[in-house]
Amino acid sequence: MVPGLVMAPALRSAMARSTHISICLAAVAIIALVACPKPTTEPARPTFERAPIRRYDLVRRGYDHNGFALNPQFGWHFNRENGCVNSDTASNPTTCSWRFSEDHVPTVTPCNTLIVDPDFSNQWSTWMFGITCSDSPMLYTGHINWGDSYRGAVTYEGWLSWDEYAPDNDYNFLLETDAQHGPSSESVMGVEIDEREIRDFSTAWFSQLHEKALKESTDTTKQFVGRREVVLTGLLGIDAEHLSAEVLHLELHPVYAMAIRTSEDNVDTDVWAVFARDEGNEGFCSHRGRDHVLQWPNQQYQVELPIRCSKAKIEATSSFCSHGNGVPEVSLTVDPQRRVSLVSVELPSGGIIEGELQLKCSGVASARARETPAPPAVGEKAKSEERRRMERWFSRTQKRQDQVQQDLSQVCRADPAECEVYRTWVVGGGSCGDVRTSPPQIESIEPPPSEPLTCESYLPPPFDPNKVAAFDASAKVEPKKPPSRPQTKRLPEDDYCDKRAKQNKTAAAICLILRHERQ
Amino acid sequence: MLRFLIVLFLALAWHNPVFAQVDPEERRIADCIDRYNTDVPFRASAAANIPENPGLVVLLRALGGTSTADGLETADPNHFGTGGRLDADTLITLSRSGHTRIGITAGLSGLTYWVPDRSVAYGGELRLGIGRRRYGVPVFEPAFLRLLQPSTCRFERMDLTIDLVRWRLLGLTDLISPERPKTLVSGIGLIVPSQRISFEGWGWKWSLSLLDFRLAPSFHWGASGSLEWSLSALVLGLNAGAHFAPDLRGFATLSAGVRFEVLEGWSPGS
């Protein structure tokens, strides 16, 4: 025997292991070969002429003072209005290809030039069992947003009315716009704000809304909100869980800033309730715990508000409260010639500001008085069968919430003191943090310039800081990526339950009811 | 078995995709959904491999395992048995939204199981329940599934079923006793969830039955779970469980067979 061929036990063992591994690998390879699909040949993809503006591009009608697209319209609407030859004028969102990434090669007409952002549900009931957010004929399990490509927000001017207090804790409003201000002729879009994110507002209008939405009927809240003039800045998206050929289900969600005229028409004092922030979530059918964060240019929010009272002398007063990070700074400017006012807020990152602006008119009637435009006559016609189906679902879940309220009131009868602690903790008493304000200025306010667009404009850039007068061009001109924030926000309920449930039986019962409600 | 299912559940939960603000995986899924919606040849090719709404799912299997097929008929756990089973299941769609269907599920099975020199059983099972069938792009793809079948855009069909009742009726012949007496064994399973996910060329299924009762000739209670793995028409399965009352014992059967999806299921508007 050749000594070199005698295998040491360790070597034999190693070879045996190696054989075992080889057999295992072979088995895995066979299974993989059987399991792998046959290579498929990719179908030949047609090429497209470059269309100037795609049907679901957002085409701005101007800029707001922050540099966001103002009252943008859909590409198909722009193409129709301007009679753009050889351009896409079809409005069906189901027959074009939505581009979510730059390398996506569409096989049919693209819907959009700049990519849109998905925000799909990652609820376990969606990804594990497909039983929530999963009924869209288009299969999208959440939202399609005109997001980063449009710097994360757009601004619309229109009329706001109440829709409902939704089971996912959202205040749902409807925004009606006329042909000159909406994405298409006379459109209605949803406006959704998570009640938990703004519940401790102390401004009269917001706290009354909070009381009515949570404690009173939908009709009472509808009556309270009425149809009010509003300027909203938010993330424009499609609640694609309900997307179909007939219904786009457009919404501003989250809303980053709202200015709503709470005074009636034809009075001597205009009152605007205002809030602004830089983050918010997108509700149940979205990525749980993901807050969309908006980078306000230079950390500044600006909104131009029309002065509706008609007398010549204008006096501006305001009261603002802050929540969240830092101390915001507010300044007001009034332009008696253009009959507009400009609210400017230096908003620290993570800060929230809310408050009220009063513009008191006195003296003789102004020759430049602005007429209050009438809201468009759209309203209920936008409610489709699909929406009614959703309402039926909402009404079922509303009953569940009513049951929770009943359970809570039963517990509270036995121990009202603890319930007061709970109420103060969770509902909040309308806290009011510091805000720096400077005296109102009377000076001219230049509207942000915007050149007219034509069919040959192609898709105009959504934001050009050099074209925005109020924007400091010497500062950072490159749009910044939103800063990352902790993704999971703790609710006041969680803090209450952590601190009180082990100390007090009533608190434990309240937390049990809340836990059942969430399940 | 229960522990295994808990581990499986936790593993799936752990794989819950966590996206950043918008991450490439979320964009990939969105692009895939768009491809599904707009690329007709691509969709047709997938539909040829995964029928969207099969009328009848037929499964023929050989069984081998502990002394009884479901642990409920005899009290002798020490012998091995073999048998065969034929299942046929359908979904009768009541409502449809896009590619999602909800309806009534119905199933019928024939079963035989033989424990040499001990017993032989013949019988069947009737299943009635509710089901939801969703066809399209999966919103969840664990990494190990992509390892088995790499793909940047795949389709799936998910059949989620809750059998409200599973009623078994078996004739059991005792081969030990010289008289070979026959006993009628009747059993019922209540609220049995199951989920089958079908991909192109392969798929898997689980089910869990916690309320499994033998009603005659005497009352017993057990619980069981099953897992199934299919490659094309080939199906491998494991059914395991425990018998809690009146005595405690476990049971398990392995199965191998073939599975066919035939006919086109009816649904409103089709």
The SSE order of chain A reads: HEEEHEHEEEEHHHEEEEEEEEEEHHEEHH
* Tally of domains of chain B: 1
What's the CATH architecture of chain B?
Beta Barrel
Query: Helical stretch count of chain B?
Result: 4
Mean model confidence by pLDDT of chain B:
84
From the N-terminal CA to the C-terminal CA of chain A, the straight-line distance is: 75 Å
* Quaternary structure type: heterodimer
The strand count of chain B comes to 10
CATH class of chain B: Mainly Beta
Q: What is the percent of helical residues of chain B?
A: 10-25%
CATH topology of chain B: Lipocalin
Series of secondary-structure elements of chain B, N-terminal to C-terminal: HHHEEEEHEEEEEE
Q: What structural class should be given to the helix and strand makeup of chain B?
A: alpha+beta
User: Could you give a short account of the major beta sheet of chain B?
Assistant: 10 strands, antiparallel, barrel
Strand coverage percent of chain B:
over 45%
Broad shape of chain A: globular
Please indicate the percent range of residues of chain A in DSSP E strands (runs of 2 or more).
25-35%
Q: Give the % helix of chain A.
A: 10-25%
Structural class of chain A: alpha+beta
Question: Would you kindly provide a written description of the structure presented here, covering whatever features stand out?
Answer:
The complex is a heterodimer of chains A (519) and B (270). Chain A is α+β, with helices and mostly antiparallel strands. Chain A has one domain (58-384, 428-467). Chain A has 10 helices and 20 strands. The longest helix of chain A is centred in the last third of the chain and has 30 residues, at 385-414. The longest helix of chain B has 15 residues, at 24-38. Chain B is elongated and about 70 Å long. The model of chain B is unreliable at 7-20 (pLDDT under 50). Chain B has helices at 2-14, 24-38, 40-49, 143-148; strands spanning 54-65, 81-97, 100-115, 119-136, 156-174, 182-199, 202-216, 220-231, 234-245, 249-264. At the A-B interface, helix 1, strand 4, helix 3 and strand 13 of A face helix 2, helix 3 and strand 4 of B.
